[in-house]
Amino acid sequence: ALSDFWFTLFQGMTEKCGCYFQLKDPPEAGSETFPPHSLIVIGDIVRGAPWWPSLHILKQMVKENHPNLKTIGLLYLMDELGNVPMHEDINSAVAFVFHTHWRADLRKKQDHLYLLGQGGALSRVVHWLPLGTFDFTPSAVLNKPIDKRKYLWSFLGSVNGKPERAAMIGAMTTHPKWSELQEKGMMHLFTGFKETVEEGKLRYKKALHDSKYMPCPGGTHPESFRLWEALEAGSIPILVDGQHHEMIKALNMGIIWLSSWSELPEFLLNSTAESEQELYGFVSKRYEVIKHNWAKRMSEAACAL
Q1: φ, ψ at 133 (rounded to 5°)
Q2: Among candidates 101, 44, 122, 135, which has minimal Cα distance to 224?
Q3: Angle at 234 between CA 200 and CA 222, to 5 degrees
Q4: Which of 60, 88, 138, 168 could link 232 by a cystine bridge, Cβ 3.0 to 4.6 Å?
Q5: Hey, CA dihedral for 244, 54, 5, 121, is it positive or negative?
Q6: Which stretch of DSSP H or E encloses residue 100?
Q7: Helix (H/G/I), strand (E/B), else coil: 224
Q8: Tens digits of per-residue pLDDT, 228-287?
Q9: DSSP reduced 3-state for 189
């Protein structure tokens, strides 16, 4: 479950230091220590393994003031439910810590300023890690200038158990001008696993590259892969503002912010070619700056191991 996005990025950064990664299974509960120069991945779905053996070993290493800690990095991935324990004594002892997903208990503790080129020291801080993409690579073949894109907007995905998505879809389909919105965009709701994973992947990717705007309602967590995949594909993301998006908003990437999904239909209906072109240019340039700073900090982290 260490997505290709993150593994490729860390691997690339590490190779610049003349090193490489060797993937290993999580340790057994009875293990005594981690070797030096380790990147430890912790999360609810990391390779289907529980996170507690790793944290147990790290707690013991902190207790012993183990010298290996200074060359160990922590990567907390897929903490969508916010239930993976975060131990300050562990975080302050290792070389660096990255954590995906906004969490209320980490508010004001997660550092996002490094993405703006303003970050401080690598150690003794929990870096907020943007979720990135999942099994998605932007396509130069599919990519189009914004004025050549077929859809004003699109949404492909499942709704089951995802109330924010249902709210967005409800706002669109109950609008008096839904028929006009349909003509300008495309919506397809996946109904089963086969359609979502096997058949929907390419269709979703094509839609991202052929849409001017991409509504990005949350799923299990308010931050979604769809947001970062839209940015990679050159589609302008649309989000509903909220405290859980405060770090994304601080990056000033040209994302469209609404106060509720009920505003979405009118925004789309009032969009103009001029505003779309201007936004597209700003979003693309700004995202490249953010990615540069992102990779720079990752490089520092990889070399610290």
Answers
A1: -105, 165
A2: 101
A3: 65
A4: 138
A5: positive
A6: strand 96-100
A7: coil
A8: 999 999 999 999 999 999 999 999 999 999 999 999 999 999 999 999 999 999 999 999
A9: strand
Structure tokens at 35: 């070797």
Residue 290 near residue 115 (C-beta atoms within 8 A): yes
List the one residue out of 287, 208, 219 whose CA is nearest residue 255.
287
Alpha carbon distance 191, 57 (integer Å): 42
From CA 296, how far away is CA 43, in angstroms rounded?
Answer: 24
Q: How far apart are CA 213 and CA 216, in angstroms?
A: 9
End-to-end CA separation in angstroms for the chain: 22
* Contacts of 54 by beta carbon, 8 Å cutoff, 6+ apart: 26, 27, 40, 42
* Segment holding 126, helix H or strand E: strand 126-129
SS3 97: strand
Cα dihedral sign for 89, 90, 94, 98?
negative
Whole-model pTM: value is 0.89
Per the CB < 8 A criterion, the answer to whether 254 and 286 are in contact is yes
What DSSP assignment string belongs to 26-76?
Answer: PPPTT---PPSSEEEEE-TTGGG--SHHHHHHHHHHHHTT-GGGGGEEEEE
What pLDDT digit, counting tens, does each position of 142-178 carry?
Answer: 889 999 999 999 999 888 889 999 999 999 999 999 9
